[in-house]
Design a protein that fits this description.
Elements lengths: L4 E5 L2 H18 L20 E7 L2 E9 L25 E9 L8 H14 L5 E7 L3 H6 L3 E9 L2 E9 H11 L1 H6 L4 E3 L17 H6 L13 E2 L11 H9 L1 H6 L7 H11 L6 E4 L2 H12 L5 E6 L3 H11 L2 E6 L10 H11 L3 E5 L11 H10 L5 E5 L13 H4 L5 E6 L12 E4 L2 H9 L8 H11 L2 H23 L6 E3 L5 E5 L7 H9 L3 E2 L1 E2 L11 E5 L3 H20 L24
Parallel strand pairs: 1-8, 4-5, 9-19, 11-12, 11-13, 13-14, 14-15
Antiparallel strand pairs: 1-2, 2-3, 3-4, 5-7, 6-7, 10-16, 15-16, 17-18, 18-21, 20-21
Helix pairs in contact: 2-4, 7-16, 9-16, 10-11, 12-13, 17-19, 18-19
Amino acid sequence: MGRDLQLRVATPEDLEWIYELRHRVYAEELGQHVPDPGGRLRDGLDGDNVYLVAARGAVRIGFVSLTPPWVGRYALDKYLSCDELPLLGEDDLFEVRILTVEPRWRGTVAAPLLMHAALRWIAARGGRRVVVMGRTELLDMYLAAGLRPVGRTVRSGALTFEVLTGAVTELTTVTMERFRTILERLRSQVDWRLDVPFAPRPDGCEHGGASFTAIGTDFRSLHRRHQVVAADVLDAWFPPAPGVRAALAEDPAWAARTSPPTGAEGLLAEIAVARALPVETFAVGAGSSDLIFRAFGQWLTPQSRVLLMDPGYGEYAHVTERVIGCRVDRFRLRREDGWRIDPARLSAVVGSGDYDLVVVVNPNNPTGRHAPAGELRSVIAAAPGRTRWWIDEAYLGYVDLAESLVDLAATDPRVVVCSSLSKMYGLSGMRAAYLVAEPATAARLRLRTPPWPVSLPAQLAAVAALRDPAYYRDRWLRTHVLRRELAADLAGLDDTVVVEEGVANFLTVTLPSGGPSAAQVVNECRRHDVYLRDLSPMSSAYQGRTVRIAVKDTAENARIVAAFQAALEVLRSGATSPVPTSPAPVPAGVPAAGSAR
């Protein structure tokens, strides 16, 4: 196969070929369906599912069908109920079916490439698990690909199928190992026309921050910082307080060459004063991620059970699932509920779940919703005594610091509050954060903290910031004004988009079903040096259609609105190119041609 091997979402012109090939394979060749006089085979999911197509020039090679959870039904529903197969009730389950290849292309890279494309498309839309109907005579092939039987078989026409499932990340790992040589060769052969990069990040987590790549991670083109609107990360739009800037400017050479206080004693004392709590209830770190990795690594094992909010900040899933390997469940927040945490439903789930850890980001990132402190206190009070709670208050200043649970954390050994000094205080580049826990818990975390955990410039900046609460209260209030203005301007562009504000320094925009995807809009805005965040990989609840936008100053907000408008115009006219890719080894499970249903 040459460089014209293409992977794309099916076009209207592809559909007739798909229906005809389905008939040839599943009616005439395999006998699963009764032949149709018209020579076409369709089913009830056509129009709701997604077909991905492999083609070489004008020659179509094969396709695979994907059914996302928001369709509300699967092909398997014809054979099994949710009671018989509870897997069908999971929020982030995608069905992969009828992977089919033209006879002359069977045995080539077409089938692995199609399955890889399916997994990339699913992962980019928050899918974590797939379900497949595989022909029983090919079971060994499915097992080798990383899929596992669920203990159910179904009969369809002349064929018997085994129902199999697998986690997207595990299928990715298995196939990268199995097909490394072949997939390396595909780097220069595939014209990738999907709205997701060809290969995932090496660590499997979309951390964000693509805007710094545009500026230049080698720091040789820092002038680009004046050209790039970095609305994909939630850094503050305002500068740090005047006292912070003065502290950093007074003697930068000394601050750069001097070792900081070993245990950040002065910073700890200042935080204790600011939060009116004993200093022994605190531990500090180089940003909240440092504290998350350190604390979770101490508390959790692969046998631990963790509950995360969904949608929720992706680092928590990364640490618990990928780094530690915990069993992770999700508490699904619902758009129809305004993304609100229902305290009664959460209390019921936690009460029956036997969880070691529950993580609540409050206000939530990325939904921007805040759960009242009183509701959380009641849920925690009723929770089992063995369950630890991690409350992330990185954005709480935008609501009211009086809503904090730090007083509870300082006395209740089940509760820890983590607070970043980055997002609320304009210190993201400094990397400074703290957590609050009852003294014994805090002491154990400090014991696991290396000396000099926070740099001297960061300690100087954080102390100065905490000494100027009036400045930051003013900036937080101004953020609400800017957010409302940005929301109104974006909503005024198109009455088919849904803008949701929340309470923090960001908002979300959801595109209409059937229109451009979030990834396409994000990519198109980058052509204007405007960087937004596609939320699709965080949760299937976003259906591949929601973008998060950080609030900036008036001038940059105007650039965001202009770029968003231009992106919608270009995408709706069809005059756009696919998402740029960086080919790398392809992760995939690999059903054979004409074998998956």
